[in-house]
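Fold this complex.
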Amino acid sequence: MISGRRYRTGEDRPEQLDVAGSDSFATAPDSFSWFDIVEPDPDDLDRLRSAFSLHPVTVEDTMHRRQRPKVELFDEYVYVVLRPLTLTTEPSIALQDHEVHVIAGRDFIVTLRWAPEFPMQEVQARWNRHPELRDVGFAIYTLLDEVVDGYLTAVEALEDEADDLEDLVFERDAEGDADILQQRLFRLKRDTVVLRRSAMPLRQGIDLIQEDASISTPALAPYFRDVMDHVIRVVELADNVRDLLTSLLEVRVAQAANRLNEAMKSMTAWAGIVLVPTLIAGIYGMNFDHMPELSWQLGYPMALGVMAGSALGLYVYFKKRGWL
Amino acid sequence: MISGRRYRTGEDRPEQLDVAGSDSFATAPDSFSWFDIVEPDPDDLDRLRSAFSLHPVTVEDTMHRRQRPKVELFDEYVYVVLRPLTLTTEPSIALQDHEVHVIAGRDFIVTLRWAPEFPMQEVQARWNRHPELRDVGFAIYTLLDEVVDGYLTAVEALEDEADDLEDLVFERDAEGDADILQQRLFRLKRDTVVLRRSAMPLRQGIDLIQEDASISTPALAPYFRDVMDHVIRVVELADNVRDLLTSLLEVRVAQAANRLNEAMKSMTAWAGIVLVPTLIAGIYGMNFDHMPELSWQLGYPMALGVMAGSALGLYVYFKKRGWL
Amino acid sequence: MISGRRYRTGEDRPEQLDVAGSDSFATAPDSFSWFDIVEPDPDDLDRLRSAFSLHPVTVEDTMHRRQRPKVELFDEYVYVVLRPLTLTTEPSIALQDHEVHVIAGRDFIVTLRWAPEFPMQEVQARWNRHPELRDVGFAIYTLLDEVVDGYLTAVEALEDEADDLEDLVFERDAEGDADILQQRLFRLKRDTVVLRRSAMPLRQGIDLIQEDASISTPALAPYFRDVMDHVIRVVELADNVRDLLTSLLEVRVAQAANRLNEAMKSMTAWAGIVLVPTLIAGIYGMNFDHMPELSWQLGYPMALGVMAGSALGLYVYFKKRGWL
Amino acid sequence: MISGRRYRTGEDRPEQLDVAGSDSFATAPDSFSWFDIVEPDPDDLDRLRSAFSLHPVTVEDTMHRRQRPKVELFDEYVYVVLRPLTLTTEPSIALQDHEVHVIAGRDFIVTLRWAPEFPMQEVQARWNRHPELRDVGFAIYTLLDEVVDGYLTAVEALEDEADDLEDLVFERDAEGDADILQQRLFRLKRDTVVLRRSAMPLRQGIDLIQEDASISTPALAPYFRDVMDHVIRVVELADNVRDLLTSLLEVRVAQAANRLNEAMKSMTAWAGIVLVPTLIAGIYGMNFDHMPELSWQLGYPMALGVMAGSALGLYVYFKKRGWL
Amino acid sequence: MISGRRYRTGEDRPEQLDVAGSDSFATAPDSFSWFDIVEPDPDDLDRLRSAFSLHPVTVEDTMHRRQRPKVELFDEYVYVVLRPLTLTTEPSIALQDHEVHVIAGRDFIVTLRWAPEFPMQEVQARWNRHPELRDVGFAIYTLLDEVVDGYLTAVEALEDEADDLEDLVFERDAEGDADILQQRLFRLKRDTVVLRRSAMPLRQGIDLIQEDASISTPALAPYFRDVMDHVIRVVELADNVRDLLTSLLEVRVAQAANRLNEAMKSMTAWAGIVLVPTLIAGIYGMNFDHMPELSWQLGYPMALGVMAGSALGLYVYFKKRGWL
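Structure:
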C-alpha cells in the first residue's frame, strides 16, 4: 500500500498524491515529497528502482528482512535501515521488533515498512509542526529521533522490570517459582541484548550522517548531536541493565547454595530428633532376660519421658545453632 | 525559585539581582552574572530561552530528567549536564542522585537544579574566594571540581563498605545472615555501577572543554587537567571496587559449596553414630529361641556397652577425619 | 583436477580451455580467464608459480591447510584465503569447514579448492549473469559474497538451534537428558566460535580490498561495502548467540542448584513420613511389663491409626510448604 | 624533615645544604640540587611553593594522600606522583604501599615522602655512580626505575604465591582449610589488582616524559624506553596472575561440587550398609506365632550371617562402583 | 660457549671463526658474520659490549632472564628478545620455555641462548639454503619464522589436548578422576596463557621491524608480513582454546550439580526401598495383645510378601521417574 504527500514550499498543508498511476514517484520543483509504502510488493520495488535509479545492492537489501541497522550514502540518495522497537503489553510486557527502510534524496523521502508496521503518526506530526525545516535532513532526523525515543522508552521499561526482579530475588520466601524467576531474568537479558544490537549500529550511522553536510546542515547539526547523545544513553543504560542481570544471576547461584545448606542442616536436625528416640525405643525392645527397667512400675512413662526429653533437647540445641 | 548575583569587575561582593522582573536575565558590561534556578517551571525555561537564545534541543533537554552527563558547545553558550552524587547517612549509608544543568556564556552562568537539590554553598564559597579568576571557565571548573570531589568521597565510602563486606565474608561464623550479606554485596555493586556511569561521561565532556580555548584558558588549563585526573581516579577506584565485589561473589559460591560439604559430612557422621547402636538394639530385639546372650546375667549392660562403644568409636573416628 | 574457462569481451559464453597442455595457464588479450583447481598436486602448484610469478610465501601458503582467512596484495596479483562454511544435515545439523585459496590478477583468477570441496556452481552462475562486470574485482566479489551468504545461512541455523535449546532449558520436565543438553549447548558455542573466527578476519581483508582502486573500482565499491556490511552482521549475530549461550549455561547451574534444593526437601519430607511411624512402632515394640495400651482391645488399630495419622499430617504439612 | 645535597658539575661528592634557613631551596648555577622532604608539614609546602612558584593545583595535590600515579608537565617544572610498592615479610608476605611526589625543574629535584617511607638509598647510590648523567631526566629515571624494579620484585612474589596456591588447590587431601585457601586466593587477587593499579598509570606518564625532549634527552631515551618496557611487563605478569587466580577460583567451585558428590555417594553407601541389616533385624523381631526360623537351633547365627553378608556384599558393591 | 661463522658474498660455505682470540667479534667487508653464544658469561657480554658498542640498557637486559619478547631499534643495531616454546613429550606433553636474545647490525648477527637451549639447526639450514638473501633482515626473519612455527606446532598440540579433554568431559562414566580432569583443564589453560603471552608482544615487535626499511627491505617485506600473519593466527587459535576451556570448566560445574542431583534422587529412592519394609517389620514387632495377624498361619510369609511388594513397588515407581 503506497501513500504519497507533496509539501510545496511556503504552503502549510500537503497535497495528496495518486501513486497508483504510472508516473507515481515523480518529484516536483519547489516541493518535498514523502512516499510511504507498507509491505511493498516486487512491483513497487521495481517502480522505485527505476524512478530513483537505485543501485542493485539497495534493491537487493530492500528485498530481505532482518537487515542490520545502517546508513549508506550513494551519489543520488541515502539509504537507511532502521530496526525500531515498541513495547507491547499484551499478553505481557514484551519488545516488538519492526523494520523500516528509508531512501531519501534532495527533495524526497521514501519509507518502506513491513508488518508489524512501525507507527508513523508521531513522525508525521512533528514534520508537519516545522514547515520551516522541511528538507531531507529534517525528515531523516524526525524519523531517527522517534526511533531512538522508542529505544529510551523500551530501556526504561527494561530497567523497571530489572528492579522488580531484584526485589523478587531478595524476597525471603519467594522460592516456589524459582524457575520462573530464572526464566524472567534470562528473557530480560535477551531483550536487553536485542535492544543494544538495534541501537548500537546507529552510532556509526549517525556519524556518517554528521559528516555529510548536505543532510546534516548547520541548522540541523545540534539535532543530530542530540540524537547521537540519546543513542549513547540507550546503549549505556542497556549495558547497565545487562551488568545488573549478570550479577543477579550470580546472586541466584549463591543463594541456591545457601538455601541448600539450610535445607541440609534442617534435615540433619529433624533426622536427629526422630532417630534418637527410635534408638531408645529399640533399646527397650531388646529381649534380654535381665533388664531391670522393664519391670519397673514407671518404666514405660519414664522411657517415653526420656524419648521426649532427648527430642526436646535436640530441638532446643539445633534451634539455638540456627539449624531449624 | 530563581536567585541572581552580579559580580562587577574589581568589586569583591556581589550585587543581588531581582529576577522576578521582566528584564530578569539581563547581563551587564564589566560584570559576570550567576543565576541559580531551583525546580524551574516551564515559564522560567521560556524566559531563559528567549534571554539567551537557547537552541530548541537545549530547551528540550532541560525539560526532561535523568539526562546523561554531557558537555555541548553551542555558538553562544555551553550546555553542561551533571549528575552529582552525595552520601546520605539516613537511614543507612546510601548514594543520593542529583541533577544539575548548566548554561554558561561569556559573562553569565545559569545553574538549574531539581529536588533533591545538589548543595551549592561550597561552590559559591570557592568562587567568592578567587575574585581574580571570575570568568565562565572558572565558574564551570568550581562546579565540576565540587561534583568530582563528591564522587571521590562516594567512591571512598564504597571502598570502606567493600572492606567491611570482605571481613564479613571471611568471618568464620557469620552464616545466619547469608542472604543479607548477599544483598549488601549486590547493592554495593549496583551503587558502584551508578557511580561509574555518572563519572565516566565527564571524561569526554572535560576533553571537549579542554579543546575550547575560550573556556579552558591557559590560566585554567592546569585546573581542568586536575579535574580530569580526579575523574579518571574515580573511575579506576570504582572499577577496583567492582572487581573486588565480583571476586567476593565468586568466593561466596565456593564457600557455600564448602559449607555444604561440611554439613553433609557432619550429617553422615551423626547418622552413623545413631544408626549403628540402633542396629545393635535391633539385633537383640530379634525373637530367636536360641540367643545365648539374652540369658546372660550381664547381657543387657554388655549390649549397652557395645552400643556406647560403637558410638564413641565412630565419634572419635569422624572427629579425627575432621567430619565433626 | 584443473578446469579453465576463457571469457572474451563482448562474448556471452566462455571457451573451455585445455589446461593439461604445457601452456595451460596462459592468458589472452581482451579476455578474462578463470582456472579452477581441485586438490592441486605439487606439480600444479609448480606450474602456477611459474605461470604467474608467485612469491615464495604464496607458494608456501598454498601448500598448507588450515590457513587463516586473509587478503594479501602483491605487485602482480592478489592472494585471498577463504574458509567457507556450509551446513550439512547428515547425520545431524553441523557446520562443514572448507578452504578456498584465490590468486587473481588483472585478467585472470585461479581458485584452489580442497576436499570437502566448496561448491562453486552458484558463484559461476552469478558471474555468468553479469557479462558487463567481468573483471577481477567482480570475480572476487561474487566469491566473497557467496562465502559470506553461507556464513549468514549458518549463523541463522545456529540462532534456530539456540532458540530450541532455550526452550529445552526452560521446559519443566526435561531433566533426564541434562548431560546431552549440556553437550548441545557446548557444541553450539564451539560452532559459534568457529563461525566467528572464519568471518572476523574478512573485515580486515575487505578493508584492504576497498583501499585498492584496481580491484574495488567505483562501480564495484557499493558491492564491497555491502559484503562488508554482511560480514559485520554475521559477527554481531554470532556474538549474540554466544552471549545467549553463556547466559543459558549460567541458568543451567542455577537451575541445577534449585532442583537439588527441591530434591533435598522432598527427601526430608518423605524421610519424616516414614520415620515417624517407625518410631511409634518402636515404642509399642518395647518390652515393659506395664504398658497399659498393649492390653487394650483396640490398642493395635489405634496404634495403626496414630501412625497413619502422623504420616498423613506430615504429608499435608509438607505439601502445604511446597516440599512435596 | 628536609635534607638537601648540591652536586656541582665536575665534582664527584655533593655538598650538604642547610635547608632550615630562610633561603633554603635556592638553586645555584653549574650545579644540580636534590631536596628530600620526609613527612612535609604545611610550612615546608609553603616554602616549596614560593621557592619554585608551584601552581595551586600542585600545592593542592601535595596536601592529599592516596593520589593517582601521574606525570604533569608545567612550564617551569614537572610534577610526578609515584605509588611504590615494597614487600614486607613480617608477619607474613604482604605488599607495603608507599607514596612519593616529585617536583623537578631544570637544575633541581624535590622528593616528598610520607610514612611508611619509600627507601631512597638505592636511588641515591645509582645517581652517585653516574656523575656524567646528572640532570633532571636522569634523576627522574633512577627514581622511576627503582620504583618499577620494586613492582617487578612484587609481581614475582605474587607469581610464587600463586604457584603455591595452585599446588594447594590440586593437593588431594587439603580440605580442612578450605576457607583459608579461599581467603588466600582472594587476598592474592586483591594484591594483584593493587599492583596493577599502581603500575598501569605509569605507561601514560612515561609516554608524556618521552615526548618531552628536555627531560627525555637523546642520551636518556633508551633508558626511558627500558623503564616503559618493564612497566608493560609488570602489567602483563599481573594480568597473568589474575587470570590464573580467576581460573583457580572456578576450579575450586567445580572441586567443591565434585567433593560434595563423593560425600553424597559415600553417605548413601554407608546408609545402605547399616540400614539393610537393621531391616533384617526388624524382620526377626516380628512377633508372628509361626516364624519357623525363630525356633531353628542355628537361627540366630544364621541371621547374624545374613546381616554380615548383606553388609559385606553392599560394601564390595559400592567399593567397586567407587562410592566408597 | 661461542661459535662464529663468516659468510663471504658469492661463496656458498661459511668460514669457521676462532672467537676465543682477543679480536673475536670483528666483522669483515663483503661478508656477513653470525656469532652464536650459549650461556654467555659476564666476560663474553663484556667483549660483546665493546665490540659492538652496546648501549648500557642492552647490556643490562642481556644479564637478566625472563625478559619480555621485544624489538628495540638502536642507531647501530637492533636488539630482539624472543621466548621460543618447544614441545617436550617426556614425561608427558608439556611446553618447554626458551629464551633467545639477538643483537644484529648491518653485517652481523649475534644470538645469545641459555639452557634449556633453543635448537638452531633448522634456522641455520634455512639460512644456508638461500645464499642470495644473506643479510641482517633475512637472518632475523629465519629466526622469527622458526620461533613462530614453534608456536603454531605448540598451539596445535594444545588444540588436540583440548579436544581430548572435551571428549572426557562429555563421556558418561568418567567420574572417578574428576579432580585429575579438572587439573588437566587448568594446566592446559595455563599453558595457553603462557603461549599467548610469548607470541602476543611479537605483533608490536614485527610492526617495528616492518617500519624499518633497512631490515624489512622490499624483497623481505612479504616474508615479514607472512610471519606477522602467523603470529596473529597463533594468538587467535590460543584465544580459541582458552574460550573453549572456560566453557568446559563452566560445563563441569553444571555437570557436577546435575550428578549431585541424580545422586540425591537415587539416595532418596534407595532409602525409601529399605525404610518402608523396616516400618512394616516394626509394626509386626509391636507387642499388642490383640494383633490378629500375628496368629495367622500365613502371617509371616504374608508380612514378608507385603515388605517385598512395597520394596518392589517403590523400585518400579522410582525407576519409572528416572530416579534410579
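The radius of gyration of chain C is 35 Å.
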